[in-house]
Design the sequence.
């Protein structure tokens, strides 16, 4: 995709959350404008690669949470635009670095950036976007927000390293899995939600409630994401499935299936996940075993628990439209998967 | 190396700058303690990998500049300790990411971290250290220092991406080479030097002078580093040489040799650097061509120019010991190479 084409694409919203966020369309346009402006560089490969990923139609779910959280407590939306861009840059940087990490073939239905541009560029452009995120926060000037997002960034990196330890380890417990997804995914959701009340100068309790909302939502979101990798009907929608299985990632469906596995099934998971010794038809067998043990349904129930936790955490606020958006966001994370 | 062994190693200074920095020994010990403390994590691989690189006996040249700059203008040394650790973390993060990038076999005489721990871990632990650097700055609380170091971080990433474009391109001009090393190396030197006067509340002119000093010093340092890669006598000292040549990096010695190349030599550089088609004995031929055109001497003269610029940029200050250290640091960058 040419540089210009990708930038044009990025100016359109193209988010599956559009229906939720009609009242935020103008703000989201400002966020996209800030993203486009800040990812520029005299080094052409930077906007090219960043544009490729950012334009790929990300759901902009984290900026949406920052915007909604700011509106909810009547904060300064101008500040929210720049900080939403910062949040999306941190997310994009982790995607770029995750591409290097996961040897994944596709992301969001496109070829992963590192296969087109190379590992080198993915790492370095990720670093650039990460630095840009901090420049945006410095320009905003809130040390509190800098603290929230630098803490989240450290936790994300820890979570990703933790995940290297659980991959291919069939002894991974549900608690260990939850610790990983809290760190690698939910921490940034929580931080994105916390930024709004900080901008608005809301009290500490409100800030904590929004943090808890984002944390629970992020956990539900990641479980739903992990379910999607085992949903055969997703293939019809043009989504890759089976990536986690092929990489030997230990996610909720496999953990639930392992809890109820008979001897033969344990050997199957040992061979395919632990020893990464996979052959034709193994993924189909995995789907059958998951089905037999209701492992996807159990994962869904777990995600549902976190959606309820998110909804209950939402603080009271005057702005009922934004309340509704944040509530819908919670149930949306499950609708994606079912 | 075991986790504990590497941490013990890191507590000793083991820097070739020891003789320069006797008066900073106690401060450097505090910096090392801060580094050890901040690189801890519940995820064991993080201190293990970070310790491997940080303990490898880095020259701690950037923290030294931050400490010296703070002492020079009588700033709060407690603040300088944490911020020196931040500066070293940013540097270590770029080394870890550079390892992924350069496919280099050795760094500081040890196996590159990514060959032992894997690309994945190098990227993610780099991200962790980078985030930690920002946490340390946030804890310090100066938005000005956050600005200086987030700007430098963005410039470093740009420089590294720029370098991808000049590699294997024998058309690279001296100016393009200087733009790359200014960004990828000198920007962090400049930032490290600027932190001291900011801590001390020195005026804008002093701050700029220290920035200029660091910038010129960083350029000289990188040219010297690039010369070392072509100095056969370094091999006797246990240092790898020829890495840049094998990777087809366009550095000062090759650029000067190309300026004076006859037709046959141009074909040689085309084949070895541009087409990366190298065979046994090519590096020795490269050394002969550099010798013939005094390319190393020309590179040295260029570095010398920047050393003089650095010395001239140094602002006047009462602390003559620190003045002397910063002056020696400039000439030291060349002594490494000769």
Sequence:
């Amino acid at each position: 995709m040419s540089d210009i084409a990708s930038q044009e694409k990025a100016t359109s919203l193209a988010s599956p959350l559009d229906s939720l966020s009609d009242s935020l369309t103008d703000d989201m346009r400002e966020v996209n404008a800030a993203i486009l402006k800040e990812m520029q560089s005299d080094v052409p490969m930077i906007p090219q690669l960043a544009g490729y990923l950012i334009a790929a139609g990300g759901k902009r779910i984290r900026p949406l949470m920052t915007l909604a959280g700011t509106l909810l407590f009547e904060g300064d939306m101008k500040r929210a635009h720049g900080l939403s861009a910062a949040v999306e840059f941190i997310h994009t940087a982790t995607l770029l670095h995750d591409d290097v990490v996961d040897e994944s073939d596709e992301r969001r239905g496109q070829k992963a950036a590192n296969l087109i541009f190379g590992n080198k560029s993915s790492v370095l452009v990720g670093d650039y976007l990460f630095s840009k995120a901090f420049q945006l926060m410095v320009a905003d000037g809130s040390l509190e927000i800098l603290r929230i997002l630098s803490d989240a960034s450290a936790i994300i990196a820890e979570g990703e390293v933790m995940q290297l330890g659980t991959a291919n380890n069939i002894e991974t417990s549900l608690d260990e899995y939850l610790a990983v997804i809290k760190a690698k995914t939910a921490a940034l959701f929580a931080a994105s939600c916390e930024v709004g009340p900080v901008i608005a100068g809301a009290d500490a309790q409100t800030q904590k409630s929004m943090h808890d909302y984002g944390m629970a939502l992020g956990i539900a979101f990641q479980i739903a994401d992990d379910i999607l990798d085992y949903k055969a009907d997703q293939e019809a929608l043009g989504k890759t499935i089976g990536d986690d299985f092929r990489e030997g990632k230990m996610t909720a469906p496999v953990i639930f299936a392992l809890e109820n596995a008979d001897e033969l099934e344990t050997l199957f998971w040992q061979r395919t996940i632990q020893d990464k010794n996979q052959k034709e038809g193994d993924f189909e067998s995995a789907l059958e075993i998951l089905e037999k043990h209701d492992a996807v349904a159990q994962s869904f129930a777990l995600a549902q628990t976190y959606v309820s936790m998110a909804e209950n955490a939402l603080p009271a606020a005057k702005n009922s439209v934004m309340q509704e958006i944040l509530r819908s966001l919670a149930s949306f994370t499950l609708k994606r998967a079912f």
Observations:
- The longest strand of chain B covers residues 106-107.
- The mean pLDDT of chain B is 86.
- The interface with chain A takes residues 41-43, 45-46, 94, 97, 100-101, 119-121, 123-125, 127-128, 130-132, 134-135, 137-138, 141, 143, 146-147, 150-151, 153-154, 156-158, 160-162, 164-165 of chain B (CB under 8 Å).
